[in-house]
Specification:
The N and C termini lie far apart (56 Å). The protein has 13 helices and 14 strands. The protein folds into two domains: 209 residues, Thiamin diphosphate (ThDP)-binding fold, Pyr/PP domains (Rossmann fold); 118 residues, Rossmann fold. It is 43% helix and 18% strand. The strands form three sheets. It has a seven-stranded mixed sheet, sandwiched between helices. Strands 9-11-10-13-14 form a five-stranded mixed sheet, sandwiched between helices. Strands 1-8 form a two-stranded antiparallel sheet. It has 357 residues and is of the alpha/beta class.
């Protein structure tokens, strides 16, 4: 298919439609509102379900209801709205219901601003509702990846009966790039064997997250942990550039990782042995690959559009084998390639001094 010039939010919305999205519930919030606005027309044209809820809390509970019937369902929001959905995420996890959530991140904390940020890392990888679970978190760095990861999100959600989040900062949601959309899939007409579709002529089904006895709750949680370990073993994803002989490894995701790519190119042109690893899954984090690379590098530089959140996962993956430096911008400020290049040069200089010492 031909490539088209598309805005990130619109591309995500159309990708969801072509992946077989059957029901969307959401509430407008910048910088993701174009996604909802586009679906308000597109879903109706196709005879599918679109509903603008009265709040993010209402939207995520509508998602819970639709997911219970086995349809492909999605919501989208931005950072403060995602905060309001946290309880709903936990209920979805407790009921083992597949769904897709798109988070187009903005500056914070609090109401913050409408500028791009990566301040939701903890929120989506650590605290997405109470209880012992993680959502699968996909982090695109381009409009094309946003399309591809949206389609992938629906497939992973159904495969594992799991909550999957596509997490893009506002820059990706608002930017325009040439990208290729997938072919239109047929909408599913037969639901899975656990879905609530009416019990006439078959035994009743029950979807619940309530386990009154401790032993029952623990048994269910053991099932959740087993599924998480399976996901962790199968779904770690990352993009690499010039890592084969790298002495310094730069790690960044989303827009920060994309800008770091340009800085790494400039560092290579200056004769510095620098490589880039860009996590495409924030959970499961690509710890296996980072751990392997830590055997051959001498230092690591983490680049984020926050005060340092992913850096904790990097340090755990590296296990203290090499020093880990950090460069970050906060509050909606997007770093420039020259800013990251300067941080690379500083880390590289310290790395050289350490070796000489």
């Amino acid at each position: 298919m031909a490539r088209e010039l598309m805005k990130g939010n619109i591309a995500i919305a159309e990708a969801a439609v072509r992946a077989g999205l059957q029901a969307y519930f959401g509430y407008p919030i910048t910088p993701q509102t174009e996604l909802l606005e586009y679906l308000s027309q597109r879903m109706v044209e196709l005879g599918r379900i679109f509903l603008q809820a009265e709040s993010e809390i209402a939207a995520i509970n509508m998602v819970y209801g639709a997911a219970s019937t086995g349809v492909r369902v999605m919501t989208s929001s931005s950072s403060p709205g995602i905060s309001l959905m946290q309880e709903g995420f936990s209920y979805l996890a407790g009921a083992q219901l597949p769904c897709v959530v798109v988070d187009v991140m903005r500056g914070g904390p609090g109401l913050g601003n409408i500028l791009p940020s990566q301040g939701d890392y903890f929120q989506v990888t650590r605290s997405a509702g109470h209880g012992d679970f993680h959502p699968i978190v996909l982090a695109p760095a381009s409009v094309q990846e946003a399309i591809d990861f949206t389609v992938l999100a629906f497939d992973l959600a159904e495969q594992y009966r799991h909550l999957v989040m596509v997490v893009a900062d506002g820059q990706i949601g608002q930017m325009m790039e040439p990208a290729e959309l997938p072919s239109m899939r047929e909408v599913q007409t037969v639901g899975p064997d656990w879905a609530l579709t009416g019990a006439r002529g078959r035994p009743k089904r029950l979807i619940s997250s309530i386990y009154m006895l401790g032993e029952e709750g623990e048994a269910f949680n053991r099932q959740v942990q087993a599924r998480l370990q399976l996901i962790k073993s199968r779904e770690q994803r990352c993009f690499e550039y010039q890592t084969e002989d790298a002495e310094l490894l730069v790690i960044g995701y989303g827009t920060a990782g994309r800008i770091a790519y340009t800085a790494v190119e400039a560092a290579r042109a200056a004769g510095l042995k620098v490589g880039l690893l860009r996590p495409q899954t924030l959970w499961p984090f690509p710890e296996e690959r980072i751990s392997t690379l830590s055997d051959s590098i001498r230092a690591c530089l983490v680049v984020e559009m926050n005060a340092g959140q992913m850096i904790d996962d990097v340090r755990l993956a590296i296990g203290g084998q090499v020093p880990v430096d950090f460069y970050g911008r906060m509050g909606g400020v997007v770093p420039m390639p020259d800013d990251i290049l300067a941080a690379i040069e500083e880390t590289y200089a310290r790395m050289t001094v350490r070796v000489r010492a």
